[in-house]
Amino acid sequence: MNLKIIEVVACGSVIWLFRGDILNSLQNLEEIVVGDCAKMRAGKHLRWSHHSHFLRSVDILGCNALKRLPMALFDDSNLPQQLPPPSLKEIKGTLSWWESLEWDQPEAKTILHPYFIEEDAEMLKHRLEQ
Question: Which domain of life, per UniProt (predicted)?
Fold first, then answer.
């Protein structure tokens, strides 16, 4: 699939962002934007195919039930720690959302934290309305 951007905004009844193996078919996905989807969840055991995607940016606003990110760290046997997806540039959201995330890999929050950009909820809301 050649889909590069997924933007889901004001979908109060949508529960699942991704289910099953759909992520592995979105190999060209660069950006995920989700806003004002209070019931949305990512899915508990989702994994990217780390060597075949281009995800650069994840923006989340007003999705308090979204407790997991659809990404995982991967191993590079030449390095002492696991790595984020190689194309990742930023994860944007409110600090309260970031702090509430649940991680399958204990070190994921620490490793992904340099990519986190705290955004004020009003700023994110304004961006999503454009």
Answer: Eukaryota
10-48, pLDDT tens digit by residue? 887 877 777 666 766 777 888 888 888 888 776 544 444
* Distance separating alpha carbons of residues 82 and 68, to the nearest angstrom: 18
3-state SS class at 85: coil
pLDDT of residue 60: 86
8 A C-beta contact, residue 105 and residue 75: no
Task: Judge contact between 105 and 69, C-beta under 8 A.
Answer: no
- What type of residue is 57? S
What is the tally of structural domains in the chain?
Answer: 1
What are 45-50's contacts with CB under 8 Å, separation 24+? 45/104, 46/18, 46/70, 47/23, 47/72, 48/23, 48/24, 48/72, 48/85, 49/23, 49/24, 50/74, 50/85, 50/86
E-assigned strands of 3-128? 5-9, 31-35, 57-61, 90-93, 116-118
Query: Domain containing 73: what range?
Result: 5-129
